Recover the amino acids of this structure.
């Protein structure tokens, strides 16, 4: 298992972690198989989306804020229920395919850590299992 | 492959299955690798979220009910289209990392079966593949 | 790694790819393990849902359109921000359990490619890792 440390700076923020994940896969010397990226936090998530135009990240953040507003008479006393709900909608894990020692991504795809209740110090765990 | 049986009691219900999944992983004697938790139902799902304050589960249920109301002129004749849609938003599978014979979870994380059209008898399947 | 080619015909479309995925798993001769289905596009996704009544697909499409409308003052200049957002809500990957040389699916479950910005030529990648 490998670990990436992330220090988020905003309350809601989408952070590109593609290079860190690809480096871990490359250094593992495993040429093909599966790679799971796992977020061990309940108010953060991981997604795949466009890495070319940063405005896509803003549109995702703004739409999730509209669908799950910060204040909505939630019962969770900590006050961050919206962040928990967004985490479950986006998801805590993504699994990727490793081919020729690299994660296979589409031309425009990047791997993004989603902070929904920052700023905080966060971790992402990576595990790799070999294929046949 | 392993199986967990769940008997849900409410129409919409989030059930903590962390202990059952961890026991299966422990008994498998596999010390590191990946573990997939799979829900073989089209009106249920699996998520990871906070296990400390049960109000988080209620906030997730209430928000999904607001976003995908039970009655909304759906075309699916069985009358449970909302449950199908929630299942696709939350997802049928989660993949976890196994380390030292245990699924790696964050301090506040639990694994939750999401019933969207109960009460029903449900199953969850577990598969484990070893790492390197 | 295996590949499925898909040519979508509509702007928003949910395409059943269960048979193609099952054939790949069968031909791999791997009897048990995990199978990841990965979509290398930022305006498409993969989900699991009911394959019996096609109206379920329409209800999913219509609800996502209502939650994430095509026009909503997005900042992404290409004009397809809604498709990107839906892709992150549904997800780019699903992981399945292989048992007896087949993906384990519930009675009513099928595997569906979700096109959110078609018509386009699309690909889906499949990777399989053996269990113990």
């Amino acid at each position: 298992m490998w670990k990436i440390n992330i220090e988020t700076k905003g309350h809601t923020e989408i952070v590109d972690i593609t290079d860190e994940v690809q480096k871990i896969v490359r250094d593992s010397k495993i040429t093909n198989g599966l790679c799971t990226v796992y977020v061990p936090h309940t108010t953060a998530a991981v997604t795949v989306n466009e890495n070319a135009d940063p405005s896509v990240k803003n549109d995702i953040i703004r739409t999730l804020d509209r669908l799950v507003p910060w204040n909505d008479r939630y019962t969770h006393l900590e006050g961050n229920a919206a962040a928990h709900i967004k985490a479950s909608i986006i998801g805590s894990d993504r699994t990727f395919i490793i081919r020729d020692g690299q994660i296979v991504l589409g031309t425009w795809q990047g791997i993004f850590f989603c902070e929904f209740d920052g700023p905080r110090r966060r971790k992402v765990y990576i595990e790799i299992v070999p294929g046949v």
